[in-house]
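Dear colleagues,

As part of the handover before I leave the project, I'm documenting each prediction I ran so the next person doesn't have to rerun anything. This entry is a single chain, and its sequence is reproduced below.
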Amino acid sequence: MPVKAKICLWLLCLLAAGASGAPTPESVFRGRAEAAFAAAQKKYQTATNSSAAASQLAAASFDAADLATNETTRATFAQAGIAACRDWLAREPKSAAGHYFLAMNLGKLAEAEAPSLAAYKLVHEVEREFKTAAALDVSYDFAGPARTLGELYFQAPIWPLSVGSRHKAREWFERAAALAPDYPDNQLNLAEAYLKWRNREEAAQTLKKIESIWPAARTNFTGTARERDWLDWDSRRAAVRTEFQKVYRAAP
């Protein structure tokens, strides 16, 4: 999730908590993620040769790491996912999902260890694993390998500090949006990038696309597992519309 989206989510959680001390959405999501991780880990321990069990643990590890409140805990969750993925890929080296989830968890480990030389090295491994996943099945998880490569190049510092690249970010964001145009994350990433780069025409077109897909997306992406996504997506949608109007003094 982009940093600005995390900040917006954090602010929403504070407002939701109010003075009553009621659980925030973030704390609810964290509890769910940790419970899912515990269940997936227990299942995996009894079926270590199961790719389905490894996939479930890898996904649960990433979610729990993403919501962790400190870097030590984040690293612990991420390392569990990394270990499961490495075992999985030893059996199935051409599993796009295996490489994808390995990259996702490596990214969380890099986040936990930053700033450090170890984190710098991990970023390059993240890039390599996402590229491998894209080569094997770029459409996996609504063009997840393309989307996450775009996010990596968009958010990372540029060379020589890291792998950040405007050209590569645009290439992969546009590819993800072309492959899975109805998935909100793909269009939101593109709109945020175009606005940052001050590409007015492209930003306006993407914002119109977001408006057109939103009603169907509300119907197609549902359930408890999507609640956090929608909190993020709605916040980011509002932010990009506001930013466009602020920068260009006009509606898209």
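Residues 1-136 form a domain with the Serine Threonine Protein Phosphatase 5, Tetratricopeptide repeat fold (CATH 1.25.40.10). DSSP finds eleven helices and no strands in the chain.

All the best with the project,
I.
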